[in-house]
Amino acid sequence: MKMKGFTLIEILVTILLVSIILMTIVGLYIASDKAFKKNKPISDVLEEMRSGIATLDFVFSRWGVGVPCANNNCTINATGIPPCDEDYPPSDPMCMTCNEGSLSSGCSDVEFYGNLYGIGFVVNANSTTGTASIISCRLEYSSDCSKQCYYIWEGGKISNFSWNSTNNQPIIRCLPSSDYEGECISGTTPKSVSFDNSTFPIEDGNIIMRAPHKIRIFLDNDGWIKMERYDSCNNFNSENGNNTRKIAKADSFKVYAEGKTIKVSVTFVSQSQPAQTLSIERYFGR
């Protein structure tokens, strides 16, 4: 019986083909690895930018929202952005204080007031029956009144029922029950609630809005844009103990006043390769 096998030439050709395939695979791997390493800093800084700008957009869009005015009578600066008064509430809800630099040449540390939490709309209210319909957008109830504080607005002012004319301060009120909670994004059907005019006096057309925070945003020495929040519900003490929250890694953070508008200019930095940066600007007004 004749045995048949591979010839030397066939073996050499097979080895050559396998070598070519392996070299091609290795080459593709090296090329893709180089491309990944080259693009990773870009990808990192883009991710840093998306996360950071989303937070900054939200916070600066809340600038001046739900902020009462001194004597319940706002004095709006017609041309510019005034610094915030030392006492609360400010005379102009759109005030902004610069702690480092200036709003004309660029401020890297700003403070302002703004509502960060829930709001509700009184569709109708009947003081005789003590019932109302509320469209609730993130109103939050807690059995601990110190953790949920709301103002009741009527037009552009705090409701007369919720303004203390003796000390010229808005009266902070707590939601009577969890019936007021809801999410207006998933459903706009008004919620039926009960109310008591002595503790939570509402009228048709009122707006229920969470008491604002004093917000500080700044570029720290470690290269991070950070935010601190001070709750008016807690006499403007630091919120939740460890109050400083990192927003994004940045090489530059500046806020400029342009009339009644602010321009926020940020140069974000890749954490994997600090030399890779991305600059972006946003405008906010009210």
Question: Residue share in helices?
Answer: 10-25%
| Oligomer classification | single chain
The residue-averaged pLDDT reads: 87
Low-pLDDT segments, ≥5 res: none
Q: Given the C-alpha coordinates, what overall shape results?
A: elongated
Mind describing the biggest β-sheet?
8 strands, antiparallel
Residue share in β-strands: 25-35%
CA-based gyration radius: 29 Å
Structural class: alpha+beta
What is the chain-wise order of helices and strands? Answer: HEEEEEEEEEEEEEEEE
Please tally the helical runs, counting DSSP H or I stretches of 4 or more residues.
Answer: 1
Number of strands: 16
Describe the structure.
The protein is α+β, with helices and mostly antiparallel strands and 286 residues long. It is 19% helix and 34% strand. It contains 1 helix and 16 strands. It has one helix at 8-61; strands at residues 97-102, 106-114, 119-126, 131-137, 150-154, 157-158, 163-164, 169-170, 191-194, 207-210, 213-219, 224-231, 237-238, 244-258, 261-269, 277-284. A hairpin with a 5-residue loop joins strand 12 (224-231) and strand 13. It is elongated and about 105 Å long. The protein starts with 7 loop residues before the first helix and ends with a strand. The relative contact order is 0.17.
